[in-house]
Amino acid sequence: MFEEYFSDNAKQMRSSEIREFFKLTEKPEVISFAGGFPSKDCLPIDQVQEVNKRLLLEAEEEMLQYSPTEGQEDLRKYIVDFMAQKGIDVGVDNILVTSGSQQGLDLVSKIFINPGDKVITESPSYVGGLGAIRNYRGDILSIKVDNKGLRLDLLEAELERLTNNGQQIKFIYLVADFNNPTGLSLAVERREKLVELAEKYEFLILEDDPYSKLKYDGPERPAIKNFDKQGRVIYLGSFSKIFIPGIRVGWVVAAEEVIQKLILAKQSTDLCSNSMGQRLIAACGREGIIDNQIKKLCRLYRRRRDKTMESLNKYFPPEVNWTEPEGGFYTWVELPPYLNSKDLLFKAIEQNVAYVSGEAFSSSGQKQNAFRLSFSQPTLEEIEEGIYRLSEVIKTELNSFEARNQRCIK
Ligand SMILES: Cc1ncc(COP(=O)(O)O)c(C=O)c1O
Question: Aminotransferase class I/classII large domain spans which residues (predicted)?
């Protein structure tokens, strides 16, 4: 009955397969590689309890009251220092605190996208980023990645083609470090070159960076934002993966003019982000608790990443390929083109193991022979057992495909 009342924007909103799918994976017997959740084994419960209790005594009003739309001053100053550690020199007026970086994706889309505007994304790309762009009816053009991230040769060809047709893109959205879903990172030389292309073809870059601190081998790469001279890069950060997601605190770094517009957009969305969460993050940040948590998480996830790679090598058949992430939560598995990862998922669930099938990460429903494994949640034993179970499902499917083929040939 409501269909005729829904706006055009609402009519084309789609439910995320991932969110729907979580219901199936919630059974305790399922080993789930599905959710991009931080590990429950390493939540900083004691520190959060202690700091929260103290703050409620010391700064009761700031904890319980509304806070400024742009974010609490202390937290913005902490974020300025956090960015300075990455070599990114900005002031508090360049920072907007958001309710998770997902809100950053929504607000940026809200202020820049008119229906039909062209936005480029990686293929595959983060489902929540695609959703935000789609909700404002952006026209998504996707560009392939290789093991050094976005293919700039293809991007440049696309930009040339658009320019020749008198068209332009608004922005390019990408996750340069340990991409969700592929786990791949954009090579440093490509980051620099991408900024040059943005200057040449006059588009903006939306850099979504929840994972760069979770690097398990070698030093962090400079962000794309590090190469930005003209303020074309809008950077999104988040405390969800490096600290705790439940308090919903993220941030945007951008030119002041952009921040001012985002503040207006945020006012009609939620007035302000969670005041308690902001105080808590600022205090935990200043007291070194977040830095410590990052170190602990890196140790935990490095072991899980290693176990995942070891188990994939041990059990998966040679027809299957996967990425080798240097950080983050994910590896991307590619099956032979004749297998469909969604069909396979139902068989995997019967064996009590789950992942997210690839098409959720494609703007046009491609990537049907791929899937995302998230290694952040299962324990080492569960990783080995889960990958073993998956390998058996895949091998059975490969064998039955071969058997069908043999019958056809005969
Ligand atoms: C690439 C990417 N961007 C944004 C988000 C949203 O994170 P937040 O909890 O900060 O809203 C996620 C969460 O999985 C993500 O993987």
Answer: 36-389
**Domain 8-43+291-397, CATH 3.90.1150.10 — does that match?**
yes
pLDDT > 60? residue 139: yes
Specify the domain boundaries for CATH 3.40.640.10 within the chain. 45-289
Tokens matching residue 107: 């607000």
What was the pLDDT predicted at 21?
67
Distance in Å, CA 102 to ligand 1 centroid: 6
pLDDT mean over 239-252: 97
- CB 328 near ligand 1, within 6 Å: no
Q: What's the 241 CA to ligand 1 centre distance in angstroms?
A: 8
Q: Where does CATH 3.90.1150.10 sit in the chain?
A: 8-43+291-397
Torsion-angle region of residue 14: left (phi > 0), alpha (psi -120 to 50) or beta? beta
Q: How confident is the model at residue 22 (pLDDT cuts 50, 70, 90)?
A: low
Atom of ligand 1 nearest to the CA of 175: 1
Whole-number Å distance, alpha carbon 400 to ligand 1 midpoint, is 38
Contact 250, 240 (CB under 8 A): yes
Q: Is the pLDDT of residue 11 over 90?
A: no
Confidence of residue 16 (pLDDT cuts 50, 70, 90): low
Given this structure, which CATH class describes domain 45-289?
alpha beta
* Ligand 1 binding pocket includes 341 (Cβ within 6 Å): no
- Which helix (H) or strand (E) covers residue 187, if one does? none
Ligand 1 touching residue 71 (CB < 6 A): no
